[in-house]
Design goal:
Length: about 270
């Protein structure tokens, strides 16, 4: 298994207070070698979790694994394509075998196309929907049997404020994220009796590569002025909410997608 490594995490007592229910547990994060996904992996690792990083980019995945091991974080990497069922079955089985469990799944892998609707073709539409929505379906479908065996688990979808506003890239991106929000609600109803919670995070106005590809520096300055909290969001902001949803602090929360936007969408 390319890049696979890492020892099972031994938790230090002084860190156990951070968030209940995370120490020694295992999380799988798709798209975990870049951007928000990488920060989610890092934050969960600092919370004492064993983190299985899945990413299609083997070079970045190996680099991320090396960084985490240097920081004494418990991590393992598997190169995989979230749109390929066999690929995900292989990665999940190896991560589960390596760490001895699978407690949290973060469906973070995603892609976008910044294309006006009149120029958007079926190839681009299918490419975005395949990664963002089909990928979340395949990974959730693969993770659920492991969680059912232990009668407990948490699935977290990384959605987007675009699902509400329709902005932020293109129609295919907004549609895929809207589909994720609906998937959260549907799965939460089906899986709650099995002890599995399903929630989402919908970031908006988060500093990083995605916004930089879509907006100019001047547009980003104007965007920030519209945010009631007076700043752009960060990858850390997203990772902190994911950690809350993964932890026992959210034990009675399921079927919700949290809009993380500094108050911009519904602000005055």
């Amino acid at each position: 298994m390319a890049g696979y490594g890492g020892k099972k995490h031994v938790m230090k007592d002084e860190r156990q207070w951070l968030l209940p229910g995370l120490a020694g547990k295992t999380a799988v994060v798709t798209g975990g070698a870049n951007g928000i996904g990488k920060q989610i992996c890092r934050t969960l690792g600092r919370m004492g979790m064993n983190v299985g990083i899945i990413d299609i980019d083997e070079d970045k995945g190996q680099k991320t694994l090396d960084e985490f091991e240097t920081a004494s974080l418990s991590a393992a990497f598997c190169r995989g394509d979230v749109t390929n069922e066999k690929s995900m079955e292989r990665c999940f089985e190896r991560i589960h075998s390596h760490f001895g469990g699978l407690d949290v799944l973060v469906n973070n892998a995603g892609t976008s196309r910044n294309i006006p609707f009149e120029e958007l073709d079926l190839t681009d539409w299918n490419a975005v929907l395949s990664v963002n929505l089909k990928g979340a379906f395949i990974c959730s479908k693969t993770a659920v049997p492991y969680m059912m065996k232990q009668k407990k688990g948490s699935i977290i979808m990384i959605s987007s404020g675009s699902a509400l506003t329709g902005s932020g890239g293109s129609a295919c991106y907004a549609a895929s994220k809207g589909g994720l929000n609906s998937l959260v609600r549907a799965l939460s109803r089906e899986l709650a009796p099995k002890g599995i919670r399903v929630n989402g995070v919908a970031p908006r106005s988060i500093e990083g590569d995605l916004l930089n590809k879509v907006y100019t520096a001047e547009q980003l300055k104007r965007m920030q002025k519209k945010i009631p909290l007076g700043r752009m969001g960060t990858y850390e902001d997203v990772a902190n909410v994911v950690s809350f949803l993964a932890s026992e602090l959210s034990a009675f929360l399921t079927g919700e997608t949290i809009l993380l936007d500094g108050g911009r969408t519904f602000g005055a």
